[in-house]
Every structure is written in C-alpha cells, then in structure tokens.
C-alpha cells in the first residue's frame, strides 16, 4: 500500500514540477508560459501585436523571433542575465513600441542591444542587477520617451551612456547606488528625472546645466549634506531648473550655529528652504533673506526677542508704579 501511495506521490510531484511550454492567443495578444528556450518554445501567429512571456525560465538568447507586427513585448520574471547586441533589430521588429524586461537577473546590457528600433517609445529594465551603463547603450532610438532603470545596482551615469536619444522625456534611476552626478550626464530634452533613494553625496557643477526643459527632479532620500548643496554653483544650477526639485529626506548634517556662505543670491528660496538644520534639538528650514542664509528659527527669534524684552520691561514698569 505504501509503495503504491509513494508511487502516486512521485507522479504528482513530477506532474506539478513540469510546465509544458504553451501560448494562449486571443486576437493579436499572446500569453505564453513554461518558456525556457527562445525562439524554440515560442509559436505565435505572425500578426501578434502583444506578447507576454511571464514567470518562465527564459535565459539568454541571441536574437528574438522576427515578428513584424509586434508592438508590445513583456519578459518579466524570467532568468535573463544579459542582453546581447542586436537582440532586437529594426528589420525583425519594425513596429516594436514597448519593451519590459523587469525582474530578471540582467547585469549587463551590450551596446546596440536595442539599437535603431524606429518606433520604440518605452523601455523598462527595472528590478535587475545592472551595475553600469556602457557608452552607446541606448543610442539611435529616435522615438524613445520613457526609460526605467530603477531598482538596479548602477553606481554612476557616464555622460555618454544615454546618448542619441533625442525624444527621451522621463528617466527613472531611483533605488540604485549612484553616489555622484557628473556634468552633462543627462540628455537635454528630459522633462522628468527620478534619482531618489540612491547614495548621492555630490552634485558637480553643470550636472543639470543642459537639461533646460526639466519639470521634475527627485533627489529625495539620498545622502546630501548642506555643505555640498550650498556651494554657489550647485545651488544655482538647481535653482535654474524651471520645474520642481524634491530634496526631502536627506541627512543635511548642519546646525543653525554654523556659518553659511555669504552670497547665495542666485539660489531660489524653494531650494534653500528644503535644507533642514538643527536648532535647540529640533530641525528648522533655512531661509534666504537678501542673499543671506539663516535658520528660520534664528530669524524668528531675532525678530521677536526685542519685542519680548520690551514687553517684559513694560510689565516691570507697571508693577513698580
């Protein structure tokens, strides 16, 4: 009896552990499971426009199957650890507009991996193990607008890493390991840049000087100190950004008894006020008054102390009369 039951259990385990590669297609959308080999395990109609290959065992592939009508491709939650050069080509994928290869094991992207895809607008490589971006990684993508590289291990952005992407508007580099922002690291047409939750301690002069259309810059939850941000060049650069700059949740490391730079008249009050310094055990935002930086608590006390002394003097005079 036990032998019979154990045999049944083995059969059940084997059956549950095996997933046959299969694609379920409705109209022009195909959802495939159990895929481990590309292109061998993929069999979809030639007119497929949306292809989802989720939660499978896809490893590396030299090139993706030619699908002339394909517009959206999702390769989320697989085992991919690198993207080879010309894995996607304009001749095989002329209509491709959106590619998502998130939650994999990608540690490197070879230059020209996505080169010259004429209609690609959105590319997400979030939740991988990418450590650096080589020059020319995203070159010649004339329509790319949104690029997500969040939740990787990128420690720097070289000025030539994101080049020849003329229409790029949104760049998400949040939750990486970037420590320094170098000059001219970003394309000039960017509208939104997310650098939150990194290890940024330094911002070089001119880091955002060429990004003239920027409407939203997120530098929250980094390691910025007041001394680094209050250099005239950095503060002026951030102040020249026409949109909003989020500097919340940084350590700052300053107190209201410290000495602040003499002239920061080109800095905006919004940038200055986001720096929080300690005063009497509590934190106070800085204020900018006539080009002079001071703690709001200090400025308030400086204003009210004479009034308080006058009030006390008047009370004593009345008591003595």
TrEMBL record:
PROSITE patterns: LRR (PS51450). Pfam families: LRR_8 (PF13855). The keyword Nucleotidyltransferase does not apply. It comes from the Eukaryota. InterPro entries: Dev_Immune_Receptor (IPR050328), Leu-rich_rpt (IPR001611), Leu-rich_rpt_typical-subtyp (IPR003591), LRR_dom_sf (IPR032675). Gene3D superfamilies: Ribonuclease Inhibitor. Residues 1-21 form the signal peptide. Coiled coil: none annotated. This is Leucine-rich repeat-containing protein 15-like isoform X1. It comes from Branchiostoma belcheri.
